[in-house]
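Milestone 3.1: sequence recovery, worked example.
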């Protein structure tokens, strides 16, 4: 079974964090909600969730993918946490997946793992976007990095995480079951 950890810091974007957890769990992936701020963490729109695990108790080696939701100041809080930077650098070095949406690619930038790879983010989030291959696409996968633009792109972001973990069939089944294909045909 694939194991994913989604890191939640105070001020996270609720849609981006919780939709990813929901979709991955629908696909049968083991997902842990990990808080940097105690058992309960509050998002940018004052929604409080209960974590499955606290960062100080995590065994990071059991996971196949790290997911970083955006939102402000959530993404900034992730970026400024030394443990998150170390986990992201470790996963990148090991070729494990690191997925960041909206403003959260600022974590990848601070961890200095973007290099020549293509990425995307919420417009204006990445200060040095001219230094790497910035794309204005819904989801960008470059090697083991998966990035996306914002709340409206979260479904495709989550499906792309599944596809990266060799769960394309489950991603496609969920696209159908969640009526994404219907919606896309009718807009």
């Amino acid at each position: 079974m694939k194991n994913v950890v989604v890191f939640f810091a105070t001020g996270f974007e609720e849609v981006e964090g919780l939709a990813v957890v929901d979709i991955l769990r629908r696909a049968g992936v083991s997902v842990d909600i990990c808080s940097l701020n105690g058992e309960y963490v509050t998002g940018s729109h004052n929604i409080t969730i209960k974590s499955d695990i606290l960062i100080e108790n995590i065994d990071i080696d059991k996971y196949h993918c790290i997911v970083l939701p955006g939102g402000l100041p959530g993404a900034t809080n992730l970026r400024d946490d030394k443990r998150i930077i170390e986990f992201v650098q470790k996963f990148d070095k090991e070729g494990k997946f690191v997925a960041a949406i909206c403003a959260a690619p600022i974590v990848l930038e601070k961890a200095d793992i973007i290099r020549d790879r293509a990425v995307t983010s919420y417009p204006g989030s990445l200060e040095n976007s001219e230094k790497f291959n910035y794309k204005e696409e819904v989801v960008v996968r470059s090697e083991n990095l998966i990035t996306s633009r914002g709340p409206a792109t979260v479904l495709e972001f989550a499906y792309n995480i599944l596809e990266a973990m060799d769960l394309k069939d489950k991603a496609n089944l969920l696209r159908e079951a969640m009526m994404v294909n219907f919606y896309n045909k009718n807009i």
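The chain has a mean pLDDT of 94. Residues 14-26 form the longest helix (13 residues).
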